[in-house]
Amino acid sequence: MVRASLSPASTVPPGPVRTCIGCRERAAKSELVRVTVGSDATGRPAAVPDPAATRPGRGAHLHPTTACYDLAVRRRAFASALRAGAALDSAPVAAYLASFTGTTLSSSTGSSTASSTASTTDRPSEEELEQ
Questions:
Q1: How many CA atoms lie less than 13 Å away from 50 in the CB half-sphere?
Q2: Quick check: 57 and 47 in contact, CB under 8 A?
Q3: Which of 37, 50, 60, 63 could form a disulfide with 81 if both were Cys (CB 3.0 to 4.6 A apart)?
Q4: Helix and strand tally (H, E) in the chain?
């Protein structure tokens, strides 16, 4: 028997699917960067990137773009998704994303702004994420 229409499940990418905490879009796990709770250079709690997805604990996922990062910071999504009691410093994630996009993001626990007008829709390849 052949179906005349495609089922909604056929639009889901193959493999594990996660939701970006910035734009709230569903995407394949391999397209997103995992973020966990860690500590910054001064020892304070911070959201830190986990591109290898091997750190223990609760994780959240984010498209590796400045647009999704900005949305996540504005919505205070890092602390919420990671179930952290207080606001988390997201500077380590900003530094990680800046290495791909060539932009400088400034953020501590509040707002962030991109100081460059580089394209935010270009996502790094899987090989770049693993480096």
A1: 18
A2: no
A3: 60
A4: 4, 7
Q: Is 94 exposed, middle or buried (0-12, 13-18, 19+ CB in 10 A)?
A: buried
Determine the Cα angle at 25 with ends 73 and 86, to 5°: 30
Residue 96 has phi, psi (to 5 degrees) of -65, -45
Q: Which two tokens stand for residue 58?
A: 């609760």
- Closest by CA position to 64, among listed 30, 113, 112, 13: 30
This prediction's pTM: 0.69
Contacts of 100 (CB under 8 A, 6+ apart): 64, 124, 128
Mean pLDDT, each 10-residue run in order, the chain (131 residues)? 54 85 96 94 93 94 96 95 90 92 55 35 47 48
